[in-house]
Amino acid sequence: MKVVTSGSRYIDIDAYAGCIAYSYLLNLKGINSKAVSTAKLNESIPKNLLELDIKLDDYIPTEEDEFIIIDVSDKKFFDSIVKENKIIKVIDHHTGFEEYWKRRLKEDSKIEFIGAVATIIFELYEKEKLQDKITKDIAYLMMSAILDNTLNFKAKVTTNRDIIAYKKLEQIAKTPKEFASKYFLNCQKIIEKDLKKSIENDTKIGITNKNLPNIFSQLTVWNKNKIFENKKIIYDTLNQFGNEWILNFICLEEEQSYMIASNNLILQNIQKLLNGKMQENYIECGEVWLRKEIIKKAEKVK
Ligand SMILES: [Mn+2]
């Protein structure tokens, strides 16, 4: 049995869609395979996608199992079911371990720095000339993964390959134009239902850069209004972690980030870095920033 799996702590829609779509591809080729995960599913996988007919598989481990890892290549983060010496393939788009896997797995290591792992998997269907076998449900999953991981194509990690794969999947799924806003609004519903938990789940503690506070949180929504009206929850949630924090609040409808911080000194520093428009107690950035891009930029400042 080939077991297609991903990360350990939580997985996002890219990992979820990637495991299911790749396992489906193997089965189409006559290779017995399962998509398996023991991780928590995060806010990027809304209820309507979990309710599709195609899902993760149940799994009972056997000695013969071999593992295919999707959307992660750092061993520390592999799903607990993975047996290190039984890994036969890695498909990922994160940097850091590409040399190691290339040496160990040769052409079975497929680590490429593009917007979404779902894009790589769509291209593998094309390579096998099996793209006509992609079902609507699988197309929905892969489209959602590309939307999420590229932030609706606004993140700087987006490549032309992601855009092309999405367009082709759009034809397969025959989705209306507003598929993207609907997807993000569905994710937003989960966030609004438990804002505190959503913020906690994406708060990074231990940033070590003199231009940034130690606590750096991130939240992505389609429309900010409801959450913006109730900023108290944001302050209360992040104040639990410490008194110096910043939140990168990405609003995709407006195609920009808002920066909210525990004090104005932090906001002034971030404004020097990103050149946004300072408002009373937040910054309007005018463009979408990802936390990892902001950290990278802060590290370049002497
Ligand atoms: Mn990904």
SSE blueprint and pairings:
Elements: E1 2-5, E2 10-11, H1 13-28, E3 33-35, E4 40-41, H2 47-50, E5 66-70, E6 87-92, H3 98-105, E7 109-111, H4 117-127, H5 136-150, H6 160-173, H7 179-193, H8 195-201, E8 203-205, E9 215-221, H9 225-228, H10 231-239, E10 245-251, E11 256-261, H11 264-274, E12 277-278, E13 282-284, H12 291-300
Parallel strand pairs: 1-3, 1-5, 2-4, 5-6, 6-7, 9-10
Antiparallel strand pairs: 8-9, 10-11, 11-13, 12-13
The structure holds manganese (II) ion.
Manganese (II) ion is lined by residues 14, 71, 93, 116-117, 149.
Q: What do you see in this structure?
A:
The protein has 302 residues and is α/β, with parallel strands linked by helices. The chain has 2 domains: 2-185, inorganic pyrophosphatase (n-terminal core) (Alpha-Beta Complex); 194-300, DHHA2 domain (Diaminopimelate Epimerase, Chain A, domain 1), CATH 3.10.310. Helices cover 41% and strands 18% of the residues. It is built from 12 helices and 13 strands. The strands form 3 sheets. The protein has a 6-stranded mixed sheet, sandwiched between helices. The protein has a 5-stranded parallel sheet with strand order 3-1-5-6-7. The longest helix is centred in the N-terminal third of the chain and has 16 residues, at 13-28. The protein starts with a strand and ends with a helix. The relative contact order is 0.10. It binds manganese (II) ion (MN). Manganese (II) ion binds next to loops.
